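User: Just a sanity check before I run the rest of the batch. Below are the structure tokens for the first item. I only need the designed sequence back.
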């Protein structure tokens, strides 16, 4: 039986919690529409952004830096460096090195930071520790095996911001070009990470910068650090940004969304689609369709093709297994094991979902914006 597909986007029945209205439009489109109304572009968005920039400059007076930008060598983070420099901000670029960055991404970071004379700090986690953490997620048969990288990036950005007395951290997230990933596909948190690592490895977390809810309140409320999302306010088209970065800095494209990191690429383009039947491109392309950056027919055509060259996929898989010290036999056992989900292992998710109305007001003391998972929970509950 063929999956039903949204009449407005390329979302289909493989997306958890999807429902359609009388016109065949998926409920996830409502999330996008709410966000677009909450964060409008044009004069209102520009005004809010200009006010925010003024606050950043005022707050940062007397400090060497007035904001932090996490950099990966990808489009979003490198373009944020360009934007910040053009506005006269004084960012510190911070890179989390988990041992999996591509050569292209490392060069991209150096090219842009050097050209703009922006200081770069790289936090290198102990690779043996990171290796065991990633292996644990694979052994757990968890969908989003790169969750430890996401958590660590936020953890190290907050830590360095607190150390430097910086009150603003830039995030390259953008719902108009990335969409809203279903919670079931990507949710993980510090409690779940600790449980998975303890269950599937013998290591202790020493250099890994975990970020608990307690840490989040400490950095966000007590230290007053704001995680902000510039692309929610300013005009941003990824293809235009890539062209500018290429022309101005000699930046190079790495082949796909988040392919600047080899393990992330493996997680998105091999592990999720082949083991779990999850194609995150449906979310990304749908966002691009709704923001008028991609035609629906073109998105359908792109989805009919593999995420990237199948032979390269196999080479990348072999590279990942070798780098993680996983034998072919062990990987086969992992691959054949029953697929788990975000509810399999202890986490904060159930508590947040159950007591959403009580939890959300508390997050206002931590984040200057409403977490995406709350928008999704509200819309899906209403549907």
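Assistant: Here's the designed sequence for the first item:
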């Amino acid at each position: 039986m063929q999956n039903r597909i949204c009449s407005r986007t390329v979302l289909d029945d493989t997306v958890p919690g999807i429902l359609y209205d009388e016109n065949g439009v998926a409920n996830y489109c409502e999330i996008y529409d709410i966000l677009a109304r909450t964060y409008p572009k044009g004069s209102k968005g520009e005004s809010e952004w200009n006010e925010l920039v003024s606050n950043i400059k005022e707050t940062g007076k007397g400090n060497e830096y007035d904001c932090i930008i996490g950099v990966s060598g990808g489009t979003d983070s490198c373009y944020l460096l360009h934007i910040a420099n053009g506005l006269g901000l004084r960012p510190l670029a911070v890179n989390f090195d988990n041992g999996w960055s591509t050569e292209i991404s490392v060069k991209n970071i150096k090219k842009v930071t050097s050209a703009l004379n922006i200081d770069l700090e790289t936090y290198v986690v102990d690779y043996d520790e990171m290796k065991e953490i990633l292996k644990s997620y694979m052994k757990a048969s968890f969908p989003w095996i790169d969750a430890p990288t996401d958590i660590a990036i936020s953890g190290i950005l907050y830590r360095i911001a607190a150390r430097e007395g910086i009150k603003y951290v830039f995030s390259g997230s953008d719902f108009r070009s990335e969409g809203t990933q279903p919670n079931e596909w990507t949710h993980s948190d510090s409690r779940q990470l600790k449980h998975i690592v303890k269950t599937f490895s013998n290591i202790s977390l020493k250099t890994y910068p975990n970020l608990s809810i307690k840490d989040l309140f400490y950095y966000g409320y007590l230290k007053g650090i704001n995680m902000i999302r510039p692309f929610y306010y300013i005009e941003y088209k990824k293809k235009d940004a890539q062209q500018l970065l290429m022309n101005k800095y000699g930046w190079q494209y790495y082949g796909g969304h988040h392919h600047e990191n080899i393990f992330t690429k493996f997680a998105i383009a091999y592990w999720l689609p082949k083991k779990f039947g999850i194609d995150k491109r449906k979310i990304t392309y749908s966002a691009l369709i709704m923001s008028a950056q991609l035609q629906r027919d073109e998105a359908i055509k792109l989805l009919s093709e593999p995420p990237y060259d199948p032979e390269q996929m196999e080479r990348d898989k072999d590279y990942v297994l070798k780098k993680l010290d996983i034998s072919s036999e062990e990987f086969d056992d992992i691959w054949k094991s029953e697929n788990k989900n975000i509810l399999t292992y202890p986490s904060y998710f159930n508590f947040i979902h159950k007591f959403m109305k009580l939890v959300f007001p508390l997050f206002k003391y931590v984040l200057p914006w409403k977490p995406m998972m709350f928008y999704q929970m509200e819309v899906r509950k209403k549907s």
